[in-house]
Amino acid sequence: MYLIVLCDDEASELKKAENMLSVYRKEHPKLDIMVTCFESADELLYMVREKEYMPDMILMDIYMPEKMGIEAARELRSLGNEGKIIFLTTSKNHALEAFGVGAAQYLVKPVLKEELFPVLDQFLKDIEENRQRYLLLRADGRTRRVAVNDIVCCEAHGKAQCMHLSDNSQLLLRMTMTEIYGMLSRYQEFVRVGIAYIVNLEFVDSMNGQDICLNTGRKIYLPRGAYKTLKEQYFRYYCEER
Q1: How far apart are CA 38 and CA 30, in angstroms?
Q2: Using CA atoms, how far apart are residues 124 and 144, in angstroms rounded to an integer?
Q3: pTM for this predicted structure
Q4: Cis upstream peptide for 29 (omega within 30°)
Q5: Cα(167)–Cα(79) distance, rounded to whole angstroms?
Q6: How much is the pLDDT for 100?
Q7: For 182-217, how does the pLDDT look when each residue is reduced to its tens digit (9 = 90+)?
Q8: Do 7 and 38 form a contact (C-beta atoms < 8 A)?
């Protein structure tokens, strides 16, 4: 499912955008799209901040009385939302500011379907490609979007599992190692090392019969008999499948 937000303080403009997206959905029946409308940026920010709402795409007016769209976009980014932002506005005056807060597109009203629909096509394609390399994980009471490339390894940690990330941060996950590996196994760089570890081969610096050295400085000691299988997986990953 793709979550698309419309945010505009003018009800008539909100309805126009909603009708246009309704046409888009009819022209793309295979896409599972949910559209939610907000009449103020504060309503949207509340949902993101308090309800962990994570829209994939935000179509937002720049000129709103309570909070300008540029300011709202800046707050969305500070809250960790990485959704595609498309500004719909009556003026080109804020174009540079818009791209400065990570806006993906800037369209001047009145927006025609011939302008908007190709943008939606490309962005939904980009979102789908990105989803294939991200996991949604529950940690520290919040839902986190974690890039697969940033996962160094996972370590059994009592009833929880500890996921080590490339920035040296850690996530404690209330999941089993089997559940975590079920999410990661479709990515060829992840391998099980005994029952206690899942390792991303991209971070392996060296290995021998006793341990693996990761390029983050971490060392993982191998269980008995694990080295042969791990070495075969490592060479197959780098020599055959890349």
Answers
A1: 25
A2: 21
A3: 0.60
A4: no
A5: 18
A6: 64
A7: 999 988 899 999 999 999 999 999 999 999 999 999
A8: yes
What pLDDT, in 10s, does the model give residues 78-118?
888 888 999 888 766 665 565 666 677 888 888 999 999 99
Residue 170 forms beta bridges with which residues?
164
How far is residue 38's CA from residue 8's CA, in Å, rounded to a whole number?
Answer: 7
Number of other CB atoms surrounding residue 115 within 10 Å? 12
The predicted-structure confidence for 116-166, as pLDDT tens digits, reads as follows: 999 999 999 988 877 777 888 988 778 888 989 999 999 998 888 999 999
Q: Which two tokens stand for residue 40?
A: 């103020």
- At how many degrees (to 10) do helices 41-50 and 69-78 cross? 0
Phi, psi values for residue 199, rounded to 5°: -125, 140
Quickly tell me which residue has 């009203």 as its tokens: 109
Q: How far is residue 137's CA from residue 80's CA, in Å, rounded to a whole number?
A: 14
Strands 211-214 and 151-157: unpaired
